[in-house]
Amino acid sequence: MNEQASTYRVAIKWGIFLGLxxxxxxxxLFLTGNIGQSWTSILSIVISIxxxxxxxxxxxxxxxGYMSFGEGTTVGTVTGLISGLLSVAFSWFYMTIIDxxxxxxxxxxxxxxxxxxxxxxxxxxxxxxxxxxxxxxPGMLLGIGLIxxxxxxxxxxxxxxxxxxxxxxxxxx
Length: 173
Hints:
Blueprint: H1 7-32, H2 38-62, H3 69-98, H4 102-117, H5 122-134, H6 138-164
């Protein structure tokens, strides 16, 4: 009798791989000053999807070519959570220890973009900047990052698992 592959072992392995890749990607963004650009968020989602696909593909292969929707969702969610934890922890460390000016630079770029649009008064821009500063504390960034990792992991895992599932044939069919 074949023993089923462990969803958690595969998820932990791929979560660490994806987390380390995300750290390298984040470091690249920090060093090039591209943190906060819209294209970087899209690329980050594509990287996450790719990591979850690889994790689920390995689990399915180890499981004789089969993976239920629930197994895929578990593998994807745990993979994404581990990756998210590593990535958020690194970003928090980088912004609070290595380069404490990252958030100030992002705020300045945001202010410049709002002023360039010309559709906001100085008062409105000041209000938006004040609101942004409230959410840029290290604790808030850590909390928001972890919640985003959780929600994003679940959503991406559900979608990828729906496409990658392959149920075992029933004995009664």
